[in-house]
User: Fold this.
Amino acid sequence: MSKPIKILESIFARATRDLSKPAVKDPKILAKIEYVCRCLSNRAGVRLLMACMLAKLDRPEVDPRKPYTEIGGKDSFSGRTYDEQYLTYFINTNHLPCNSTTGFLTPAFRNIDKPLSTTVAIVGRPMQVYQDTIQILEEVATGRLSAEDVLTDTIRLLVVVREEKKQRMSTLVASLQHNNDVIPLSSEAIVKLIAQHLDCPHSSRLPVLVIAAAYRTAAEKLGEHALPLQVHNAADKQTGAMGDVEICLMNTERVVTVYEMKTHRVTIEDINRALQKIDRNFVSTTTSLLPPM
Assistant:
Protein backbone atom coordinates (compact mmCIF):
# COMPACT_ATOMS: atom_id res chain seq x y z
CA MET A 1 0.00 0.00 0.00
CA SER A 2 1.42 3.40 -1.03
CA LYS A 3 2.12 6.15 1.48
CA PRO A 4 -0.62 8.56 0.25
CA ILE A 5 -3.26 5.83 0.61
CA LYS A 6 -2.06 5.05 4.14
CA ILE A 7 -2.22 8.76 4.96
CA LEU A 8 -5.80 9.01 3.71
CA GLU A 9 -6.90 5.96 5.69
CA SER A 10 -5.25 7.28 8.84
CA ILE A 11 -6.77 10.75 8.44
CA PHE A 12 -10.20 9.27 7.70
CA ALA A 13 -10.05 7.22 10.91
CA ARG A 14 -9.09 10.32 12.89
CA ALA A 15 -11.76 12.50 11.23
CA THR A 16 -14.61 10.06 11.81
CA ARG A 17 -13.70 9.23 15.41
CA ASP A 18 -15.79 12.19 16.56
CA LEU A 19 -17.57 14.22 13.88
CA SER A 20 -18.38 16.98 16.33
CA LYS A 21 -14.76 17.61 17.31
CA PRO A 22 -12.75 19.82 14.91
CA ALA A 23 -8.99 19.48 14.58
CA VAL A 24 -8.39 23.14 13.64
CA LYS A 25 -8.76 25.36 16.69
CA ASP A 26 -8.85 28.77 14.98
CA PRO A 27 -12.59 29.48 14.43
CA LYS A 28 -11.93 31.83 11.50
CA ILE A 29 -9.86 29.29 9.59
CA LEU A 30 -12.32 26.53 10.48
CA ALA A 31 -15.14 28.66 9.03
CA LYS A 32 -13.18 28.98 5.76
CA ILE A 33 -12.66 25.21 5.56
CA GLU A 34 -16.34 24.62 6.23
CA TYR A 35 -17.38 27.08 3.54
CA VAL A 36 -15.17 25.37 0.95
CA CYS A 37 -16.53 21.96 1.97
CA ARG A 38 -20.17 23.03 1.93
CA CYS A 39 -20.16 25.14 -1.24
CA LEU A 40 -22.30 22.89 -3.45
CA SER A 41 -22.19 25.26 -6.44
CA ASN A 42 -18.41 24.86 -6.79
CA ARG A 43 -16.67 21.64 -5.71
CA ALA A 44 -13.30 22.33 -7.35
CA GLY A 45 -11.94 24.07 -4.26
CA VAL A 46 -12.39 21.17 -1.89
CA ARG A 47 -10.69 18.68 -4.22
CA LEU A 48 -7.77 21.04 -4.78
CA LEU A 49 -7.47 21.64 -1.05
CA MET A 50 -7.44 17.90 -0.30
CA ALA A 51 -4.85 17.23 -3.01
CA CYS A 52 -2.51 19.94 -1.72
CA MET A 53 -2.80 18.78 1.89
CA LEU A 54 -2.19 15.16 0.88
CA ALA A 55 0.91 16.17 -1.10
CA LYS A 56 2.23 18.17 1.88
CA LEU A 57 1.79 15.17 4.19
CA ASP A 58 3.36 12.82 1.66
CA ARG A 59 6.26 15.16 0.84
CA PRO A 60 6.80 17.72 3.64
CA GLU A 61 9.28 19.69 1.51
CA VAL A 62 6.66 20.83 -1.03
CA ASP A 63 4.86 24.16 -0.95
CA PRO A 64 1.08 23.55 -0.98
CA ARG A 65 0.66 26.78 -2.98
CA LYS A 66 2.57 25.22 -5.91
CA PRO A 67 0.49 22.27 -7.16
CA TYR A 68 1.78 22.68 -10.73
CA THR A 69 5.01 21.18 -12.06
CA GLU A 70 5.19 24.08 -14.55
CA ILE A 71 6.15 26.36 -11.65
CA GLY A 72 9.43 24.48 -11.31
CA GLY A 73 11.68 23.92 -8.31
CA LYS A 74 11.89 21.11 -5.79
CA ASP A 75 8.95 22.43 -3.79
CA SER A 76 6.40 22.24 -6.62
CA PHE A 77 4.35 19.12 -7.37
CA SER A 78 1.54 17.78 -9.52
CA GLY A 79 -1.68 18.36 -7.60
CA ARG A 80 -3.65 16.74 -10.40
CA THR A 81 -1.68 13.51 -9.96
CA TYR A 82 -2.51 13.35 -6.24
CA ASP A 83 -6.11 14.23 -7.05
CA GLU A 84 -6.65 11.64 -9.78
CA GLN A 85 -4.37 8.88 -8.54
CA TYR A 86 -5.37 8.80 -4.87
CA LEU A 87 -8.33 11.07 -4.09
CA THR A 88 -10.73 9.83 -6.77
CA TYR A 89 -10.76 6.28 -5.40
CA PHE A 90 -10.87 7.53 -1.80
CA ILE A 91 -13.80 9.88 -2.51
CA ASN A 92 -15.79 7.27 -4.41
CA THR A 93 -15.14 4.53 -1.86
CA ASN A 94 -16.36 6.68 1.01
CA HIS A 95 -19.19 8.33 -0.97
CA LEU A 96 -17.95 11.83 -0.14
CA PRO A 97 -19.92 14.74 -1.68
CA CYS A 98 -17.33 15.84 -4.22
CA ASN A 99 -17.14 16.10 -7.99
CA SER A 100 -16.37 12.81 -9.70
CA THR A 101 -13.47 14.35 -11.63
CA THR A 102 -10.37 16.32 -10.63
CA GLY A 103 -10.67 19.94 -9.61
CA PHE A 104 -7.55 20.83 -11.61
CA LEU A 105 -9.39 20.64 -14.94
CA THR A 106 -11.84 23.39 -14.06
CA PRO A 107 -11.20 26.72 -15.88
CA ALA A 108 -10.12 28.53 -12.70
CA PHE A 109 -7.42 26.01 -11.73
CA ARG A 110 -6.22 25.01 -15.20
CA ASN A 111 -2.93 26.07 -16.81
CA ILE A 112 -1.48 28.06 -13.91
CA ASP A 113 2.31 28.49 -13.89
CA LYS A 114 2.79 30.47 -10.68
CA PRO A 115 2.11 29.85 -6.96
CA LEU A 116 -1.50 30.22 -5.86
CA SER A 117 -1.83 33.48 -3.97
CA THR A 118 -4.17 36.41 -3.59
CA THR A 119 -2.24 38.20 -6.35
CA VAL A 120 -3.03 35.50 -8.94
CA ALA A 121 -6.06 36.39 -11.04
CA ILE A 122 -8.50 33.50 -10.67
CA VAL A 123 -11.88 33.95 -12.31
CA GLY A 124 -14.78 31.90 -11.02
CA ARG A 125 -17.87 31.92 -8.86
CA PRO A 126 -18.41 32.15 -6.03
CA MET A 127 -15.16 34.06 -5.58
CA GLN A 128 -15.12 33.28 -1.85
CA VAL A 129 -14.36 29.62 -2.58
CA TYR A 130 -11.10 30.57 -4.28
CA GLN A 131 -10.21 33.22 -1.72
CA ASP A 132 -10.76 30.87 1.22
CA THR A 133 -8.94 27.97 -0.45
CA ILE A 134 -5.89 30.10 -1.21
CA GLN A 135 -5.91 31.57 2.31
CA ILE A 136 -5.87 28.07 3.82
CA LEU A 137 -2.95 27.08 1.55
CA GLU A 138 -1.12 30.20 2.73
CA GLU A 139 -1.66 29.31 6.40
CA VAL A 140 -0.23 25.82 5.84
CA ALA A 141 2.70 27.03 3.72
CA THR A 142 3.80 29.52 6.40
CA GLY A 143 3.53 26.93 9.18
CA ARG A 144 0.68 28.61 11.04
CA LEU A 145 -1.53 25.60 10.34
CA SER A 146 -0.79 21.89 9.90
CA ALA A 147 -1.73 20.05 6.73
CA GLU A 148 -2.88 17.11 8.85
CA ASP A 149 -5.41 19.21 10.76
CA VAL A 150 -6.74 20.83 7.57
CA LEU A 151 -7.15 17.48 5.79
CA THR A 152 -8.74 15.96 8.90
CA ASP A 153 -11.36 18.70 9.16
CA THR A 154 -11.97 18.71 5.41
CA ILE A 155 -12.75 14.99 5.43
CA ARG A 156 -14.70 15.30 8.69
CA LEU A 157 -16.92 18.03 7.24
CA LEU A 158 -17.46 16.11 4.00
CA VAL A 159 -18.64 13.12 6.05
CA VAL A 160 -20.95 15.44 7.99
CA VAL A 161 -22.40 16.78 4.72
CA ARG A 162 -22.79 13.20 3.45
CA GLU A 163 -24.69 12.14 6.55
CA GLU A 164 -26.87 15.25 6.46
CA LYS A 165 -27.79 14.46 2.85
CA LYS A 166 -28.64 10.87 3.78
CA GLN A 167 -30.88 12.11 6.58
CA ARG A 168 -32.66 14.57 4.29
CA MET A 169 -33.23 11.86 1.70
CA SER A 170 -34.59 9.48 4.33
CA THR A 171 -36.97 12.16 5.56
CA LEU A 172 -38.14 12.96 2.03
CA VAL A 173 -38.66 9.30 1.15
CA ALA A 174 -40.61 8.77 4.36
CA SER A 175 -42.81 11.75 3.56
CA LEU A 176 -43.62 10.27 0.16
CA GLN A 177 -44.95 7.08 1.69
CA HIS A 178 -48.73 7.27 1.82
CA ASN A 179 -51.44 5.13 3.31
CA ASN A 180 -53.75 3.01 1.17
CA ASP A 181 -56.66 5.38 1.80
CA VAL A 182 -54.79 8.38 0.33
CA ILE A 183 -55.79 9.24 -3.23
CA PRO A 184 -52.71 9.18 -5.54
CA LEU A 185 -51.89 12.15 -7.75
CA SER A 186 -53.74 12.47 -11.05
CA SER A 187 -51.87 12.40 -14.37
CA GLU A 188 -52.40 16.16 -14.73
CA ALA A 189 -50.98 16.80 -11.25
CA ILE A 190 -47.93 14.66 -12.00
CA VAL A 191 -47.27 16.48 -15.29
CA LYS A 192 -47.64 19.84 -13.53
CA LEU A 193 -45.26 18.76 -10.76
CA ILE A 194 -42.62 17.65 -13.25
CA ALA A 195 -43.03 20.91 -15.20
CA GLN A 196 -42.44 22.91 -12.01
CA HIS A 197 -39.27 20.93 -11.33
CA LEU A 198 -38.05 21.48 -14.90
CA ASP A 199 -38.47 25.23 -14.43
CA CYS A 200 -36.19 25.20 -11.37
CA PRO A 201 -32.55 26.36 -11.72
CA HIS A 202 -29.83 23.69 -11.78
CA SER A 203 -32.29 21.03 -13.01
CA SER A 204 -30.48 20.02 -16.19
CA ARG A 205 -30.25 16.40 -15.02
CA LEU A 206 -34.02 16.08 -14.56
CA PRO A 207 -35.00 15.69 -18.27
CA VAL A 208 -32.52 12.83 -18.53
CA LEU A 209 -34.04 11.14 -15.48
CA VAL A 210 -37.58 11.64 -16.84
CA ILE A 211 -36.78 9.84 -20.11
CA ALA A 212 -34.86 7.06 -18.34
CA ALA A 213 -37.70 6.57 -15.83
CA ALA A 214 -40.29 6.41 -18.62
CA TYR A 215 -38.36 3.64 -20.36
CA ARG A 216 -37.84 1.76 -17.11
CA THR A 217 -41.59 1.88 -16.43
CA ALA A 218 -42.59 0.72 -19.93
CA ALA A 219 -39.62 -1.55 -20.64
CA GLU A 220 -41.53 -4.83 -20.85
CA LYS A 221 -44.26 -3.48 -23.14
CA LEU A 222 -41.79 -1.67 -25.39
CA GLY A 223 -39.30 -4.51 -25.53
CA GLU A 224 -36.57 -1.93 -24.91
CA HIS A 225 -34.55 -0.77 -21.91
CA ALA A 226 -32.28 2.15 -21.03
CA LEU A 227 -28.61 1.60 -20.32
CA PRO A 228 -27.28 2.85 -16.94
CA LEU A 229 -26.80 6.62 -17.04
CA GLN A 230 -23.30 8.01 -17.28
CA VAL A 231 -21.87 10.81 -15.14
CA HIS A 232 -23.83 13.98 -15.88
CA ASN A 233 -20.92 16.43 -15.79
CA ALA A 234 -18.56 14.31 -17.90
CA ALA A 235 -18.26 14.61 -21.68
CA ASP A 236 -19.71 11.80 -23.79
CA LYS A 237 -16.28 11.39 -25.39
CA GLN A 238 -14.86 10.67 -21.94
CA THR A 239 -17.56 8.17 -20.90
CA GLY A 240 -17.93 6.54 -24.32
CA ALA A 241 -21.69 7.18 -24.41
CA MET A 242 -23.48 8.20 -27.62
CA GLY A 243 -25.78 10.57 -25.73
CA ASP A 244 -27.54 11.32 -22.45
CA VAL A 245 -29.90 8.31 -22.61
CA GLU A 246 -29.12 5.17 -24.62
CA ILE A 247 -31.95 2.75 -25.42
CA CYS A 248 -31.34 -0.90 -26.29
CA LEU A 249 -33.52 -3.79 -27.38
CA MET A 250 -34.49 -6.06 -24.51
CA ASN A 251 -31.82 -8.61 -23.53
CA THR A 252 -29.19 -6.91 -25.70
CA GLU A 253 -26.69 -4.09 -25.37
CA ARG A 254 -27.24 -2.89 -28.95
CA VAL A 255 -28.19 0.79 -28.88
CA VAL A 256 -31.16 1.55 -31.15
CA THR A 257 -32.21 4.99 -29.85
CA VAL A 258 -30.20 7.84 -28.33
CA TYR A 259 -31.60 10.89 -26.50
CA GLU A 260 -29.53 14.07 -26.18
CA MET A 261 -30.93 16.81 -23.92
CA LYS A 262 -30.43 20.48 -24.87
CA THR A 263 -31.36 23.68 -23.08
CA HIS A 264 -32.02 25.41 -26.41
CA ARG A 265 -33.93 24.72 -29.61
CA VAL A 266 -32.21 21.91 -31.51
CA THR A 267 -30.27 23.11 -34.57
CA ILE A 268 -28.86 21.39 -37.63
CA GLU A 269 -25.39 21.73 -36.05
CA ASP A 270 -26.60 19.79 -32.99
CA ILE A 271 -27.88 17.00 -35.23
CA ASN A 272 -24.64 16.89 -37.25
CA ARG A 273 -22.55 16.65 -34.08
CA ALA A 274 -24.79 13.83 -32.80
CA LEU A 275 -24.38 11.94 -36.09
CA GLN A 276 -20.61 12.36 -35.94
CA LYS A 277 -20.64 10.99 -32.39
CA ILE A 278 -22.66 7.95 -33.47
CA ASP A 279 -20.36 7.36 -36.45
CA ARG A 280 -17.31 7.55 -34.18
CA ASN A 281 -18.79 5.02 -31.77
CA PHE A 282 -19.84 2.75 -34.65
CA VAL A 283 -16.35 2.77 -36.14
CA SER A 284 -14.82 2.08 -32.70
CA THR A 285 -17.20 -0.81 -32.06
CA THR A 286 -16.72 -2.29 -35.55
CA THR A 287 -12.95 -2.09 -35.25
CA SER A 288 -13.01 -3.90 -31.90
CA LEU A 289 -15.08 -6.72 -33.46
CA LEU A 290 -12.72 -7.31 -36.39
CA PRO A 291 -10.55 -10.45 -36.11
CA PRO A 292 -6.81 -9.88 -35.64
CA MET A 293 -4.75 -9.76 -38.83
About this structure: DSSP finds eleven helices and three strands in the chain. The longest helix spans residues 147-176. The chain has a mean pLDDT of 85. The two ends are 40 Å apart (CA to CA).
